[in-house]
């Protein structure tokens, strides 16, 4: 069976008992409101139909990730080896210094979430963004499956089919320890700090990760970057105990914005007194300029014909907004999206499809720092039907889809699925998160 056939089966079962489905969906929402999947005081919204992928589709994602990571490896090696190639990224001296002292060869991308727009009928897709620093939302998938078990249809579907969920916590601890042992060449387990700026992070999720580290025999604590201290060659957590390895959730841009307040972390990293799992070279992929760099002739020259074809098929056309003709961008409203180089959570993103002609002109003309923005081809997300709240009414609607693959130390580990009533899939708009079920077709 295909994803579309599984969806149809699930939707038919929802529609066969509308009153029960309404009642159970409201119970599901109530569960999420009291769950640990809370971010800045807001609970995670969802729909009644989970995201369903077949094992063969997931295997295809995993194989494609291996191709992508091979390309990333060549990009990173060239960055470290060639100053002229390094200049393509345009990083300031402070960022470049942090990148060049990192352990890129032993630990390229310990954690990433690769987001893309996947067409479930054709199998085509275009990348949206590469999240390395601060990859998040693992706890959302876990709690959403807990909530879905309140649904009769979910229980019946998982009983009738061979399904699995994506395990995203213990597998990360295993990957983290693997990186530690490979880089430090020891079997001694490290003492771990999970580090972010707490006003920016998903704090509840940090606590879940801490529990899983401890269940596997590692001491762990959650620390704000500003609570760290560096004394006598040892980095200390807020507990005052030494830290051997850091699970970095603080994105590079936030660290640079709080550079002086991050001195303990940065000094310890420079002295190699602590292992930063998620070192600063991940910025090469996290920063959206990677989309432009991947299409540059200097990068294509590094790649095999197959890798070049992969870039052309899946990387949307991208250029510096400074090199574009604003009037052409305004005329071709629905063809483009504007993205800041180094942001997250869709902050500062403008898509022509979201505006009328005059609103788009105003949005384009409002960008004064054109060097700080990329102009990118807009790729319309795939649309599926689902049930959820429209206002306070439980009803079916059409939702745009975004897929993310979690990759731990180079291995595809799970899927993060989001939908929205609008083509821009962001918490600033009508975004909902769906738990992902992998089905053996």
From TrEMBL:
Protein name per its UniProtKB record: Glutathionylspermidine synthase family protein
Species assigned in the record: Gemmiger gallinarum
């Amino acid at each position: 069976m295909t994803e579309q056939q599984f969806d149809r089966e699930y939707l038919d079962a929802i529609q066969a008992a509308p009153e029960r489905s309404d009642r159970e969906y409201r119970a599901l929402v109530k569960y999420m409101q009291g769950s640990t999947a809370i971010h800045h005081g807001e609970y995670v919204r969802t729909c009644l139909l989970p995201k369903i992928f077949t094992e063969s589709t997931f295997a295809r994602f995993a194989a494609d990730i291996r191709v992508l990571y091979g390309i990333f490896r060549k990009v990173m090696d060239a960055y470290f080896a060639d100053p002229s190639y390094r200049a393509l990224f345009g990083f300031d001296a402070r960022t470049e210094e942090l990148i060049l002292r990192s352990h890129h060869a032993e630990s390229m991308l310990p954690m990433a979430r690769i987001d893309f727009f996947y067409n479930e009928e054709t199998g085509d897709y275009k990348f949206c963004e590469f999240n390395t620093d601060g990859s998040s939302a693992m706890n959302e998938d876990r709690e959403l499956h807990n909530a879905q078990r309140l649904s009769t249809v979910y229980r019946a579907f998982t009983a009738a089919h061979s399904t699995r969920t994506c395990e995203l916590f213990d597998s990360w601890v295993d990957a983290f320890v693997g990186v530690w042992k490979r880089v430090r060449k020891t079997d001694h387990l490290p003492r771990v700090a999970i580090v972010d700026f707490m006003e920016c992070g998903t704090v509840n999720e940090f606590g879940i990760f801490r529990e899983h580290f401890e269940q596997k025999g590692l001491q762990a604590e959650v620390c704000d970057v500003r609570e760290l201290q560096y004394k006598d060659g040892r980095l200390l957590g807020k507990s005052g105990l030494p830290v051997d390895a850091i699970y970095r959730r603080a994105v590079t841009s936030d660290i640079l914005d709080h550079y002086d307040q991050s001195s303990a972390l940065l000094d310890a990293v420079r002295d190699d007194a602590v292992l930063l799992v998620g070192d600063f070279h991940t910025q090469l992929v996290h920063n959206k300029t990677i989309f432009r760099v991947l299409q540059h002739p200097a990068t294509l020259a590094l790649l095999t014909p197959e890798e070049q074809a992969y870039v052309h098929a899946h990387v949307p056309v991208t250029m510096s907004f400074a090199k574009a003709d604003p009037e052409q961008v305004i005329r071709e409203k629905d063809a483009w999206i504007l993205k800041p180089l180094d942001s997250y959570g869709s902050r500062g993103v403008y898509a022509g499809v979201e505006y009328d002609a005059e609103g788009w002109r105003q949005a384009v003309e409002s960008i004064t720092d054109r060097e700080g923005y990329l102009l990118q081809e807009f790729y319309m997300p795939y649309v599926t039907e689902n049930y959820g709240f429209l206002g306070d009414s439980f009803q079916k609607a059409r939702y745009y889809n975004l897929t993310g693959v979690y990759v731990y130390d180079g291995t595809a580990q799970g899927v993060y699925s989001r939908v929205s009533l609008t083509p821009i899939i962001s918490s600033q708009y009508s975004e909902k998160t769906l738990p992902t079920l992998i089905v053996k077709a």
